[in-house]
């Protein structure tokens, strides 16, 4: 499952289940465990909820580009979403 698919699955569940959304905001590791989503221990998750008055801009880490990258390296850099822009990856909002 790609990062974008995981994100969309969690967003959909939050929209359908306010208890899950509350738990994801307050104890994301427990909520993910209950949802069957297993992130590596090295990944730290921060959950924020946007509103009509608040916009969060996520600035991804700048990719390290080498001469040749494996498929896994490309996926981790691209995150499975967006398109290249002048300053890094731009998410595709639909």
Write up what this structure looks like.
The chain is mainly alpha-helical and 94 residues long. 41% of the residues lie in helices and 6% in strands. The chain contains 4 helices and 2 strands. A two-stranded antiparallel ribbon has the order 1-2. A hairpin with a 2-residue loop joins strand 1 and strand 2. Helix 1 crosses helix 2. The two termini are 19 Å apart. The mean pLDDT is 80.
Concise synopsis of the structure shown:
This protein is mainly alpha-helical. It is 41% helix and 6% strand.
Report the helical percentage. Answer: 40-55%
Structural class: mainly alpha
Average pLDDT works out at: 80
Order of secondary-structure elements: HHHHEE
Task: Walk across the major sheet and give the strand order.
Answer: 1-2
Largest sheet: 2 strands, antiparallel
What's the count of strands? 2
Through-space gap between termini: 19 Å
**Residues in β-strands, percent:** 5-15%
Broad shape: globular
Radius of gyration, in Å, reads 15 Å
Please count the helical segments.
Answer: 4
